[in-house]
Amino acid sequence: MCVMEQFKERLLEALQTKPGLTKERLAQAMNEECSEAFRESLSHAYDAGWIHKVQDKYYPGSLKSY
C-alpha cells in the first residue's frame, strides 16, 4: 500500500470519528506533525475530493453530502 493510500485511510478514519477538525487538531488526531508535508497531503486529499473544507474545518467526502 502506498503512503498516500495510508494517509487517506487514516485521514478519513479521523474525520469520520470527529468531523469538523482544523488542520492542527486533525494532525493531532492522526498522530502527525502539522508540517508542510502534512499540509501538502491535506491539499492533495482536498483536490482529490476525499475531503472538503468549511471555514478551515475539514469534513469527509464531498460538500454535497452535508
How large a portion of the residues is in β-strands, by DSSP E?
A: 5-15%
Low-confidence stretches: none
Oligomer: single chain
Average per-residue pLDDT, rounded, comes to 91
Number of distinct helices: 3
The major β-sheet equals: 2 strands, antiparallel
Order of helices and strands: HHHEE
Strand order of the largest sheet: 1-2
The coarse silhouette is: globular
Our measurement of the CA-to-CA distance between the termini, rounded to an integer number of angstroms, reads 30 Å
Rg of Cα set: 11 Å
Amount of helix: 40-55%
Give the structural class. alpha+beta
The count of DSSP E runs of length 2 or more, i.e. the number of strands, is 2
Characterize the structure shown.
This protein is of the alpha+beta class. Helices cover 53% and strands 12% of the residues. The protein is built from three helices and two strands. The chain has helices at residues 3-17, 23-29, 36-48; strands at residues 51-54, 57-60. A two-stranded antiparallel sheet has the order 1-2. β1 and β2 form a beta hairpin. The longest helix has 15 residues, at 3-17. The N and C termini lie far apart (30 Å).
